[in-house]
Amino acid sequence: MLTGKLITFEGPDGAGKTSALNAIVAKIAPRLGDQLVVTREPGGNQISEAIRRIILDRQNTAMDDRTEALLYAAARRQHIVQKIQPALAQGKLVLCDRYIDSSIAYQGAGRGIGEQAVYDMNQFATEGLNPDLTLYFDVAAEVGLKRIQTHRQNEINRLDVEALSFHHRVQAAYLRLLAAYPERIKRLDASQPLDQVVAQAIAVMTTQLPQYFATEGKSNE
Ligand SMILES: Nc1ncnc2c1ncn2[C@@H]1O[C@H](COP(=O)(O)OP(=O)(O)OP(=O)(O)O)[C@@H](O)[C@H]1O
Ligand SMILES: [Mg+2]
Q1: Which of 38, 48, 61, 133 has fewest C-beta within 10 Å?
Q2: Which atom of ligand 1 has the smallest separation from the CA of 20?
């Protein structure tokens, strides 16, 4: 039986997911110790990181949309089996930078394969392992892309360079997910400065998962 909890970080490129995740970990890691597992998709283990390099390689212009979706799901499967599931079985808190919702938004809507088709295909990969909580970093696609162009020139991948219309489809799909799963997905205003986004995230996590966060704010003052 799984007793741990899985929190996923979702949102468009440059929304600040990774920055916020790092800041949150710096705050909570001293208290949670090895009860905390921090990971990312695609990746989180040797096989999935190898798949990640294939997906994000800007040389791979010939990659078919469904191949891309299947590679993400394959990386996810391996990540779950090797890392997420064992951690949850030990009662740990797992924070994951992107998960299924990214596939639904980017491959389902962005690439146009179909959100339902990508969802269904992912059920095979995950055997129904859904996040307990998803933080949605809500920011206009243009703002996120501008942040990346300004600060992260050395690390722009194959999906970052898609047309703006692609990113608008991704964002629209995320907003549909937000509306469809209001219990699971909580919106953060990611247009605010990073420290305020982090404060919003901790507030949401404290409300939703008090068993891990109830003392937050007291322990690190
Ligand atoms: N709230 C914020 N306000 C302004 N700039 C920010 C904010 N959060 C992050 N940034 C900056 O924007 C850039 C993108 O942030 P980050 O890499 O955390 O985004 P991301 O959501 O993880 O993007 P990706 O989906 O591409 O991984 C970084 O240079 C970061 O310093
Ligand atoms: Mg990131």
Answers
A1: 61
A2: 18
